Design the sequence.
C-alpha cells in the first residue's frame, strides 16, 4: 500500500520535472532575447533538478544510491545556477543590455 | 530499453557532429565538441565501460574544452572559409563512408558472446585477475599489469605531448605584448568565487578517491590526473594565473610530469633488479598478490602525476600567452 503511494508520488515528481525540462527547452528556443532565454534555461537547472532527483530518490528508497543522488543534486544545485549567473554576467559585461521597457510604454 | 537509449544517444551524436562541421563560429564549435564528448561518455556508460566514460567526461568534456578555449583566446573566433577542393573532399568522404558501412556488415552483434573479441584473451583476463591481483576491477588489472607496457607507452606519449606544447608555446611573446598574470581571474565576482572555493576541495578529494580506488571501482591514474588538474584549473580561473602558479609553480609541474614517467619506469627496473621481468610486479613483495597490488598502486600514482602535471603545464602555457588585441 505504502509502496504504491511512494511509487505514484515519485512518478508524479518525475513527470513534473520532465515537464519543467520541456518548458525550459521550449523557452530557451522561443523566447525573444538572451536574458529571457537564459531565464527559461535556468528553470531546468533548479526546479527540474529538484523534482527529478526527488523522484529518483523516492525510487531508490533508503539506500546508498539515494545518498549519492542527493549528493549529485546538491552539486548540481550549487554549480548550475552559478554557471547561469556567470553567463548572464559575462553578457552584461560585454555590453549586452537587457531590453528593459517601462510598463507604461508597452501598454 | 538500453537499445532505445543507445539509439537516442547515437542520433544526438550524429546531430552534434553535423553541427560541429556546419558551424563557422569556432567558439560554438568548441562548445559542441564538449557536448559531443559528454554524449560519448554517456554512450560508453550505456555500454558498461565506466572507466572509459569517466576518462571521456573528465578529459574530453572538461579539460580539452578549457584548453580549446584558451587557444581560442589567442586566435580568431571564426573559421577561415576555404572554397577550393570541396568536391574532392566530398568524394573522399563518400568513398570512406561506403567502406566503413560495408565493413560494419561483418561486425558481430552488440554484446554477442561468440564475437572474436570475447573469445581470444578476455576470458583469460577475467579468470586470472582474481587469482593474480585479488581485486575486482579487471580494467585496472589489464591497464596496470597485464598490458603494463602499453600504459608505460601512453605515459611517455603524454610526456612527449607536454614537451611539444611547451616547446611551441614556451617561447617569449613578441615585444610590447607583455602578459600580466595578475590581471586574470574572477576575484571581483563574488558568486563564482564563493561557489568555486566551496567546490575545489571536493573536486581534488574526488580525484584522489578515483586515484586510489581504481582497483575497486572505475578510475585510475588517467582519470584522477585529469580531475585534479581540473580542480587546479578552476582555481586558476577564479583566483588568476599568478595564484595558481604560486600554489603549484612551473618547476613542481615539470617535476610531476618527469617524476611520474620516471616512477613508472623505475618500478619496471626495480622488478628487474629483484629478479623478475620488466614490469613484473609479483617480485616486489614476498607475496605475489600483494606485489602485484603494490606495483599497480605505484604505477597508477606515476600515471596520475604525469597526467596532472602535463595537463596543467599545457593549460598554463596557453594561458600565459598575451591575448589577441
Sequence:
Amino acid at each position: 500500500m505504502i509502496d504504491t503511494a511512494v511509487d505514484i508520488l515519485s512518478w508524479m515528481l518525475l513527470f513534473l520535472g520532465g515537464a519543467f525540462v520541456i518548458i525550459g527547452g521550449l523557452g530557451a528556443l522561443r523566447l525573444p532575447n538572451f536574458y529571457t532565454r537564459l531565464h527559461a534555461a535556468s528553470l531546468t537547472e533548479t526546479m527540474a533538478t529538484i523534482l527529478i532527483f526527488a523522484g529518483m530518490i523516492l525510487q531508490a528508497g533508503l539506500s546508498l544510491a539515494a545518498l549519492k543522488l542527493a549528493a549529485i543534486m546538491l552539486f548540481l544545485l550549487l554549480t548550475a545556477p552559478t554557471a547561469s549567473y556567470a553567463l548572464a554576467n559575462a553578457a552584461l559585461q560585454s555590453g549586452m543590455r537587457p531590453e528593459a521597457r517601462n510598463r507604461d510604454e508597452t501598454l | 530499453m538500453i537499445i532505445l537509449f543507445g539509439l537516442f544517444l547515437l542520433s544526438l551524436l550524429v546531430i552534434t557532429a553535423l553541427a560541429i562541421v556546419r558551424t563557422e563560429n569556432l567558439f560554438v564549435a568548441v562548445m559542441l565538441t564538449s557536448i559531443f564528448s559528454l554524449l560519448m561518455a554517456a554512450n560508453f556508460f550505456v555500454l558498461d565501460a565506466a572507466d572509459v566514460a569517466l576518462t571521456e567526461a573528465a578529459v574530453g568534456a572538461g579539460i580539452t574544452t578549457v584548453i580549446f578555449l584558451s587557444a581560442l583566446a589567442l586566435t580568431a573566433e571564426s573559421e577561415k572559409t576555404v572554397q577550393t577542393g570541396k568536391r574532392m573532399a566530398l568524394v573522399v568522404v563518400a568513398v570512406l563512408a561506403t567502406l566503413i558501412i560495408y565493413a560494419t556488415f561483418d561486425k558481430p552483434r552488440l554484446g554477442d558472446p561468440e564475437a572474436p573479441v570475447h573469445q581470444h584473451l578476455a576470458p583469460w583476463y577475467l579468470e586470472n585477475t582474481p587469482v593474480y591481483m585479488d581485486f575486482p576491477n579487471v580494467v585496472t588489472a589489464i591497464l596496470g599489469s597485464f598490458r603494463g607496457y602499453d600504459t608505460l607507452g601512453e605515459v611517455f606519449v603524454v610526456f612527449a605531448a607536454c614537451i611539444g606544447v611547451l616547446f611551441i608555446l614556451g617561447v617569449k611573446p613578441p615585444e610590447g605584448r607583455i602578459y600580466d598574470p595578475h590581471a586574470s581571474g574572477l576575484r571581483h565576482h563574488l558568486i563564482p568565487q564563493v561557489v568555486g572555493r566551496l567546490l575545489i576541495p571536493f573536486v581534488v578529494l574526488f580525484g584522489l578517491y578515483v586515484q586510489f580506488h581504481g582497483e575497486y571501482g572505475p578510475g585510475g591514474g588517467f582519470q584522477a590526473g585529469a580531475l585534479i588538474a581540473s580542480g587546479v584549473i578552476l582555481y586558476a580561473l577564479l583566483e588568476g594565473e599568478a595564484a595558481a602558479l604560486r600554489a603549484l609553480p612551473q618547476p613542481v609541474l615539470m617535476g610531476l610530469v618527469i617524476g611520474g614517467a620516471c616512477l613508472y619506469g623505475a618500478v619496471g627496473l626495480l622488478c628487474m633488479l629483484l629478479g623478475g621481468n620488466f614490469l613484473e610486479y609479483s617480485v616486489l613483495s614476498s607475496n605475489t598478490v600483494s606485489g602485484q597490488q603494490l606495483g599497480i598502486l605505484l604505477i597508477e600514482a606515476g600515471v596520475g602525476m604525469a597526467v596532472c602535471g602535463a595537463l596543467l603545464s599545457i593549460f598554463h602555457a596557453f594561458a600565459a600567452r598575451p591575448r589577441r588585441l
User: Anything to note?
Assistant: The mean pLDDT of chain A is 87. The interface with chain B takes residues 75, 78-79, 82, 85-86, 89 of chain A (CB under 8 Å). Chain A has four helices and no strands. The two ends of chain A are 54 Å apart (CA to CA).
